[in-house]
Amino acid sequence: MTLHLFNHLLAVGSVEAHIRFMEAFRAVYRNRVVEIILLLCAASQIASGLTFVRRRWRERHQGLDLLQLGSGLYLAFFLLVHVGAVLTGRMQFGLDTNFYYAAAGMHVLPYRYFFLPYYFFAVLAIAIHLARALHWLARDRLSAAAMRAATALLSMCGFAAAALIVAAFAGGLYDITVPAKYLATFQ
């Protein structure tokens, strides 16, 4: 996940930087064995997260715990949609699921009204979820004030990263011409 987010942050510089990095690491993560392991990990995260929510639903209705609950539920939704969309793009449409595949939805009305917040909240949810995981891992070693500060700092970094990534993919940082074959998936 860290490499994937780093890859998307490279798009802040240029589409070419994003695609070069992605192509370099595809040799690893598109290996059939590695890809199956990654898909199983995503399925495991979704299943374990939803199980955790179901078991602890009544205990999680206060303060910052709601952030963990909400971010986890959003990430489960995002992973299901995102992985399904990428596999569909590759297998059904025969597209290279690169920068342009992700960016296409942000360049077609009315789909941009779904994709802009969809990607923004995914990046923000990762940061918030990690911040709350840090809370649970370090709760006996850090004060409540330190935990709140760490949650705020990680959330602000997530907000900034989300805004930059979405701005890059939406064409807010430089002009983007999405090839017609990617735009055609929305017609």
From TrEMBL:
It comes from the Bacteria. GO terms for cellular component: membrane. The chain crosses the membrane at residues 33-53, 73-93, 113-131, 152-174. Keywords: Membrane, Transmembrane, Transmembrane helix. InterPro entries: SQR/QFR_C/D. This is Uncharacterized protein.
